[in-house]
């Protein structure tokens, strides 16, 4: 029943994925955790290209159906054996005790093991396909994170280079212990056609402050 519901909710879904989900639902007990069905089914079908609203409705329907089936097939209460059991007959004891619990060991009762309805080879292929898709998605997410981090680092480096261009850091280590005074020798200053200074020398001592004084600023 779940196969038809899955195909209806996600048309065109890969057959291996349908059988994988159906096999998981058949072989697991969800009585203690009603959300387990949605937690398992929803990511797989979304990754297969299904519509989220339809998948949510599918999960709700599957939960109701499976839980109702579990309650209908719940183990019967303990009952008194109608016939005596020979202890030495181990296979008969195993089958009879299982009947008393409301379940039957098919391997002992029928003498053969009943094979699962799910094709194990297709299950393995479906699991491998799902694992490959998840790995590809994680690789894509990691690449995007690395790209964003690299872009931010490049932007930060560009800002630092631009800051250094307009605000150069002067290195005084090479002139340590040397004379840092500023000397200007043999210069002339003229104003309004009149020469004010001729062959003048100027020395600005390092660490002192200077200002311009006088009528003409000299």
From TrEMBL:
Taxonomic superkingdom: Eukaryota
Residue ranges constituting the ABCF3 PWI-like helical bundle domain according to the UniProt record: 3-66
InterPro entries: ABCF, P-loop_NTPase, PWI_ABCF3
Coiled coil start-end: 123-162
One GO molecular-function entry: ATP binding
Keywords: Coiled coil, Repeat
Keyword Cell inner membrane: no
Keyword DNA repair annotated: no
PANTHER family named in the record: ATP-BINDING CASSETTE SUB-FAMILY F MEMBER 3 (PTHR19211:SF117), ATP-BINDING TRANSPORT PROTEIN-RELATED (PTHR19211)
Protein name: ABCF3 PWI-like helical bundle domain-containing protein
Record organism: Rhizopus stolonifer
Source organism phylogeny: Eukaryota, Fungi, Fungi incertae sedis, Mucoromycota, Mucoromycotina
